[in-house]
Write a structure and sequence with these properties.
single chain, about 300 residues, alpha/beta, four-stranded parallel sheet, 11 helices, disordered N terminus
Length: about 300
């Protein structure tokens, strides 16, 4: 578990560095009415505080450089969502499960550390909120919470103008396919790498279609991180270069399928705009050239 948390923290920190590349100028007027977030520990800002699992980060040293201290962010300070919200001129979107979550009109964070695209990812750590459940919670926001403050036409406009960020899928490999917690993976005995990537892409495509049906139109979807560069694999698997190539190759089966899936959705869902966040390439660049980004 400690190794998992170190790996998660590493990439959360990389997200902060990546965010700084574009969050140089902050907006005084919001660029969108709201920011809605779905995903795993890279963007979770506290939902796991309220569920019975072991993937928590509401204690030090997490939050050691954050003004509010440990909040449930899997980083020492701000994460990607915080920088993006600041850039957009919005408050930080509160966790859905917090008392502030249901009443927020400027966005909500539904992400859950250790969650994945498929439902059974993360079950090794207890109860997590997989992407399907996060989308169900978003639907509750639309049907139960927003009508308290808006008419139906106002809700539709609000949803169509909001920004949606998804960062999900790393745990489907890290915890599920590679068996990071148990050391064994029943999934890898059932699926070869390419069929597993197809399973994830097909499942995610249906989930994005569901998000569209709920009213989302402007969607950012991050690709997966170079998991072979995490400390847990660098310390436990032989490798010749800076990273464990065989682990990164697994992730790339997914990443290489992502652009065509997003293009397919863009061409079939009227009015939808999908933008891919190239986390893999950016994180690899930082790992290979750390001094260029002030990491060493």
């Amino acid at each position: 578990m400690e190794k998992m948390m170190k790996s998660s923290t590493m990439f959360a920190l990389l997200f902060v560095l990546i965010s700084n590349l574009f969050a140089i100028i902050y907006c005084t007027q919001p660029l969108a009415p709201a920011l809605y977030v779905f995903g795993d520990s890279l963007v979770d800002n506290g939902n796991n505080n309220w569920i019975p699992d072991v993937a928590k980060s509401n204690y030090y040293p997490y939050g050691s450089n954050f003004s509010a201290g440990p909040t449930g962010r899997f980083s020492n300070g701000k994460n990607l969502v915080d920088f993006l919200a600041e850039y957009m001129g919005l408050p930080y979107p509160p966790p859905y499960l917090s008392k502030e979550g249901p009443s927020s009109l400027t966005g909500i964070n539904y992400a859950s550390g250790a969650a994945g695209i498929v439902e059974y990812t993360g079950s090794q750590v207890g109860v997590v909120l997989p992407l399907d459940e996060q989308l169900a919670n978003f639907q509750m926001t639309i049907t139960r919470d927003l009508p308290i403050h808006m008419t139906q036409s106002q809700i539709s406009e609000h949803l169509s103008k909001a920004i949606y960020l998804l960062s999900i899928g790393n745990n489907d490999y890290l915890i599920n396919y590679l068996g990071a917690f148990t050391g064994v993976s029943p999934t890898s005995t059932v699926y070869a790498p390419e069929p597993f990537a197809e399973l994830l892409i097909n499942t995610l495509e249906k989930q994005l279609q569901q998000l569209y049906k709920l009213g989302a139109r402007k969607i950012i979807l991050n690709d997966l991180c170079p998991l072979g560069c995490t400390p847990m694999y660098l310390k436990t698997r032989p490798h010749k270069g800076a990273c464990v190539d065989e682990i990164n190759a697994l992730v790339q089966h997914f990443n290489k399928r992502l652009p065509s899936m997003l293009q397919r959705l863009s061409s079939t869902l009227t009015g939808a705009v999908f933008v891919q966040g190239n986390i893999y390439a950016t994180a690899t660049e930082i790992i290979l050239n750390p001094t260029k980004y002030g990491c060493i």
